[in-house]
Amino acid sequence: MELAYIPSPSSGVLYLGPVPLRGYAFCIIIGVFVAVWLGNKRWIARGGRAGTVADIAVWAVPFGLVGGRLYHVITDYQLYFSEGRDWVDAFKIWEGGLGIWGAIAFGALGAWIGCRRRGIPLPAYADAVAPGIAFAQAIGRWGNWFNQELYGGATDLPWAVEITSSADGRVAGTYHPTFLYESLWCVGVALLVIWADRRFRLGHGRAFALYVAAYCAGRFWIEYMRVDEAHHILGLRLNNWTALLVLLLAVLYIVLSARKRPGRETTVEPGAAGADGEAGAAEKDAAEPTGTEGDAPAKEGSETSESSETSEGSEASGTSEGSEGSSVSEGPGASKDGAGSAKKS
Asked: By CB distance 3.0 to 4.6 Å, which of 139, 205, 222, 239 could disulfide with 31?
């Protein structure tokens, strides 16, 4: 008898009046907001403009959702196109079923379109949003808890998840919560990327490649624990092989990129720093007159003052010289006349 376990929700849908609120979709939406919020902060810290991450996410997120659903439907086609199945269910994304590999691939395509429209290098953008994507995955995995899916083998561990649904061949019991393992692993991946990015100043897509490599390493062993239906190749699940291949490609990219383009980009968004500097200079010019314009009146005043002083000095000198000359030429007679005048007055 299990003494403790993680109970599963009795239903993955909550109703707000007639409006259904599906736990799976709610987790995805929260994850997207977290990814955009953190990506925006990191983008600004790297010299980009506020709001650029959200503008590009308008392209990346829809592409990612379509790609994630396509990968799931293609690799698990028997769930939708085999006998007794309804192919319309392939469009019911709220019921679960998003392949991270397709989501990242198509999301990167959408991000590339958005970056190209703004003249931004895709690797720089990917580095900024990498930890946010990992956090978004950590949050999104709880959507599988609402749908009672993505669990491992039976166990009586105190953190086992209780499965009560019997849909799609499920057997009630307690199992390894692989969705929880992956959620915690993704949190660790996000923190690893943030630390490594600060410590080694990763650039040119290497922070994103580190996220991919670290995620794949965890996905390999977590995928190995799962017991849900999947295609197998040489005894391993398809997603095990995918994780292994993508892991090797990510490591190879890190090595080659570090040799070819070491360090980090000095400019991530053309015109971002220059535009801000020009705006600041314009505001300063509007508030204070420039040195040339401000000094002109003062210079003119100085020249006027100097001219007046020169004129006054010249007049005073002339008057003095004239008085002295007059005194010399008039001699004693002038003094008598002056004395006489003084007596008369």
From this structure: 139
